[in-house]
């Protein structure tokens, strides 16, 4: 281990690394957050960090299409989606909902294990990549796995959707750090997908609540003929 | 050993002893402002201390000699701890003698003695407080050690002076791992200093107090020493936070001009840090005692993450 090697990374690379670390921190914060309202705010913050890191990658590498996707991130993930979610939870009156999470320390320990796995898996991949952000691939992968874990451990519908959106965030981050982002068409398609998915899920929430009188999706495990 | 290092060391100790009650008063003042109360004077802790020093000591009949010795031991531990943390200069005569791990050991020593003293008289509150303190202590200590290990990996040394030297005087580098370590350290220092999410330093409500329950039997100069030691602990933790995460402005040479500038910068940083602490205390509600393991477990995991992030991002593989 050579401590002087970090000095070889340019300042922009360091800022991107910092953004990646904050992404991971927010991932853990979301994993252990009980309140729905705070969860949405954390999601918004994650979008903001994603925007900043994409913007820096775009500016340092001169990839103009990344500027577009940074703008898309800002509009969609910092303003539009949190706004829709805020409105949804207000109309579903679950704004102050607190989810009973069993055993947060255990979930966090599993999260740490996932991070270790992700770092080890990503190491050979990052050696193949030639981008300035290659060190963050491991973190992006870890964020994806953490969002997966959140998807598994949550039982209410709104946090699950937020977990799904966080996973999309992490995938986008992984794409940016590994290959400077996907082609513009793909990115636009995904953005549209997320947007439409959000709207449809919003309708689903109301249907679920009407059917089961609750947003707990465990009720959906018992499907009966009626 | 050179003369300046000795001078800086002595100055640091004196400043710690004088500033610690003021820092405590400042945090209380900020908290009062934030909560729309009229604030106590900045020197309130001094008035309390001088009042307590003038009072007689009342001892329980079955108090052992350990009960009487503990305040002096705790006070000297905390004074030594604040002398080890480099605040004014990295050229200190104590710095080769004690590193970060020895510092954790000093805090642990003080904790063991205050817990023993709490149980010594045999009142139910004392032993209740001691047990809770040990619960908090045994969870907070590994997290604190992990934070130290992370910064030690960055600086390649466990000596606090070398760590500050590395962080403050090399080329400016952003260490993402320090973001994690900083959050973990903040959580640990809230727990260790009996601050609001864990313990309320102003309450004497039986069911919730931790630190106050242990020192319930103390009076007079013993209580004064323990109170002073508590504010020294807060001071030491604040300086530690400054040294590890905001070390800019701590000079490496110990000449008088540099020391004066460093002292001014230190006061500004401490004022800001105290305000942030008061803000955290105002914004958060005290948690149930059984939530504390969760809180400190999170701090430990964050510190572990800091180390992992350091290994991934900062070693340049």
UniProtKB/TrEMBL annotation, chain A:
Protein localization: Cell membrane
Keyword terms: Cell membrane, Membrane, Transmembrane, Transmembrane helix
Keyword Nucleotide-binding: no
GO cellular component: plasma membrane
Membrane-topology annotation of the record: Multi-pass membrane protein
TM region(s), chain numbering: 6-29, 36-59, 65-85, 106-126, 132-152, 161-182, 188-208
Protein name per UniProt: Formate hydrogenlyase
Automatic annotation (TrEMBL), chain B:
Signal peptide annotation: none
GO cellular component, one term: plasma membrane
UniProt subcellular location: Membrane
Protein origin, superkingdom: Bacteria
Chain ranges passing through the membrane: 6-27, 69-88, 100-122, 134-154, 174-191, 234-251, 257-280, 292-313
Membrane topology of this protein: Multi-pass membrane protein
Main location: membrane
Pfam family, one: NADHdh
Keyword line: Membrane, Transmembrane, Transmembrane helix
PANTHER family according to UniProt: FORMATE HYDROGENLYASE SUBUNIT 4, FORMATE HYDROGENLYASE SUBUNIT 4-RELATED
Record's protein name: NADH-quinone oxidoreductase subunit H
């Amino acid at each position: 281990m050579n401590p002087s090697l970090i000095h070889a990374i340019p300042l922009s690379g360091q800022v991107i690394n910092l953004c990646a670390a904050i992404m991971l921190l927010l991932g853990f914060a979301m994993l252990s957050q009980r309140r729905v309202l705070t969860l949405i705010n954390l999601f918004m913050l994650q979008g903001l960090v994603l925007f900043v890191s994409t913007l820096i990658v775009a500016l340092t590498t001169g990839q103009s299409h990344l500027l577009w996707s940074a703008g898309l991130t800002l509009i969609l993930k910092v303003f539009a989606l949190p706004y829709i979610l805020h409105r949804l939870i207000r109309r579903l009156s679950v704004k102050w909902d607190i989810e009973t999470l069993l055993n947060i320390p255990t979930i966090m320990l599993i999260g740490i294990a996932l991070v270790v796995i992700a770092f080890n898996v990503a190491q050979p991949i990052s050696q193949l990549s030639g981008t300035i952000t290659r060190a963050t691939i491991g973190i992006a992968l870890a964020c994806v796995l953490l969002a997966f874990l959140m998807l598994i451990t949550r039982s209410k519908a709104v946090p699950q959707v937020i977990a799904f959106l966080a996973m999309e965030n992490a995938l986008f981050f992984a794409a940016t750090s590994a290959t400077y982002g996907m082609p513009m068409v793909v990115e636009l398609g995904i953005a549209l997908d997320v947007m439409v998915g959000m709207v449809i899920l919003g309708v689903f929430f109301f249907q679920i609540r009407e059917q089961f009188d609750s947003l707990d999706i465990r009720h959906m495990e018992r499907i009966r003929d009626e | 050993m050179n003369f300046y290092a000795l001078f800086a060391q002595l100055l640091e100790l004196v400043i710690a002893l004088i500033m610690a009650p003021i820092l405590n008063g400042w945090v209380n003042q900020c908290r009062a402002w934030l909560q729309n109360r009229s604030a106590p004077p900045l020197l309130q802790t001094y008035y309390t201390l001088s009042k307590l020093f003038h009072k007689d000591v009342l001892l329980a009949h079955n108090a052992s000699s350990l009960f009487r010795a503990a305040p002096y031991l705790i006070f000297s531990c905390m004074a030594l701890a604040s002398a080890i943390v480099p605040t004014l200069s990295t050229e200190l005569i104590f710095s080769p003698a004690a590193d970060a791990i020895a510092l954790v050991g000093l805090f642990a020593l003080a904790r063991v003695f205050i817990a023993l003293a709490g149980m010594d008289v045999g009142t139910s509150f004392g032993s209740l407080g001691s047990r809770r303190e040990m619960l908090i202590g045994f969870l907070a200590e590994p997290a604190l050690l992990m934070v130290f290990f992370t910064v030690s990996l960055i600086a390649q040394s466990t000596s606090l002076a070398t760590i500050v030297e590395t962080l403050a005087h090399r080329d400016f580098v952003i260490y993402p791992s320090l973001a994690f370590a900083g959050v973990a350290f903040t959580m640990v220092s809230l727990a260790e200093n009996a601050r609001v999410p864990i313990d309320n330093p102003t309450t004497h409500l039986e069911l919730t107090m931790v630190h106050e329950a242990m020192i319930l039997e103390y009076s007079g100069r013993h209580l004064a020493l323990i109170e002073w030691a508590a504010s020294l602990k807060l001071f030491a933790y604040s300086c530690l936070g400054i040294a590890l995460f905001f070390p800019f402005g701590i000079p490496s040479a110990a000449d008088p001009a540099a020391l004066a500038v460093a002292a001014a910068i230190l006061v500004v940083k401490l004022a800001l840090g105290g305000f942030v602490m008061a803000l955290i205390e105002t914004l958060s509600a005290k948690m149930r005692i059984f939530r504390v393991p969760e809180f400190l477990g999170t701090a430990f995991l964050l510190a572990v993450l800091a180390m992992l992030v350091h290994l991934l991002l900062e070693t340049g593989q």
